[in-house]
Amino acid sequence: MSETPYPLHTALSLAASGVPVLPLRRGKVPFGNCPTCAKNACGGRPNMKTPGPCRCFGVCHAWAAATTEPAVIISPPWVEAWRQAVCVGYHPGGARLTVVDLDNADAIAWAQGALPATRTVPTTRGEHWIYRGTMASSNAVRPGVDIKSTMSYARWLGPGTGTMTDLPEAVRALAVKEPPTVQPAPHVTVPAPVGKGECRHRSPAYLERGIAMAEQRITEARSAVHTTVYRTFLAVLSAHGRCGCLTDAHIARLFTAAQAKGESPRHCTDAWTNARTRLGL
User: DSSP of 175-244, one letter per residue?
Assistant: First the structure.
């Protein structure tokens, strides 16, 4: 080739410095897989931990296609992609780097107070802060902040300014998922048990199975929760309301399941009362 127009020229320069590159099309996204690799028919490489071209030598599998090999970068499939490319992408993890993508002014202000200074690159809406070292990529680690390192790509926007520093624990900590907050069980006030007759059930297992099924029916409701709760209460009272086996503990389980689906204590009480009235209890 007699000349290498941008972005191919930039890609070759980056590759020579050890930065794995790939072309990005309109929308700043990678090119789609070739027909041979469509829908991962080739087996795919989405879980690769090191960069490199697909065996088809096309521009396939997004970040996993990023390469430093000039022969690949100027091969016919890649040259065609470079002709359509709008910018150069690179695989930060393959270059032993981590990019903290700050998407707006608020995110930048947060980083200036929370993270060690490092090399920065202006973006359309914010900045890339680039650290030396790798970690797992993670999106939306806080408002306006993404982390791009292994198994990810970033847009090349220039070398940036400032001295690059080692990846700090403060950045690694951003990707650590906090354990989910355990919500306290709702306070449940239940009516007194009904029925004083002799229990006609042969085994306590029958009642336990019925209550468990009722809890499951309420918990799995995806719509019409009010109606589901009422009909479930009606079914339980129909089967167990006239004998003495239904205790306040059983009723509490049903009310707890209903309130966990968003029902108010008053609605639970009303649904229970209406079911009793319907059955003449």
Answer: TSPPPPPPPPPPP---PPP---B----S-HHHHHHHHHHHHHHHHT--S-HHHHHHHHHHHHHHHHTTBS
pLDDT for 123? 96
Structural tokens at position 191: 């009516």
Confidence at 135, pLDDT banded by 50, 70, 90: very high
Q: Does residue 4 register a pLDDT over 50? A: no
- The bridge status of strand 21-25 relative to strand 87-90 is antiparallel
Question: Quick one: which of 97, 120, 98, 91 has its CA closest to 108?
Answer: 120
Query: Which residue is it, tokens 């499951």?
Result: 216
Contact 18, 11 (CB under 8 A): no
Sequence-distant (≥ 6) Cβ neighbours of residue 271 within 8 angstroms: 226, 229, 230, 233, 258, 263
Task: Give the pTM.
Answer: 0.61
Contact between residue 88 and residue 25 where contact means Cβ atoms under 8 Å apart:
no
Tell whether the model's pLDDT for residue 82 goes beyond 90. Answer: yes
Q: Model confidence at 267, in pLDDT bands (50, 70, 90)?
A: confident
Query: Do residues 117 and 188 lie in contact, with contact meaning Cβ atoms separated by under 8 Å?
Result: no
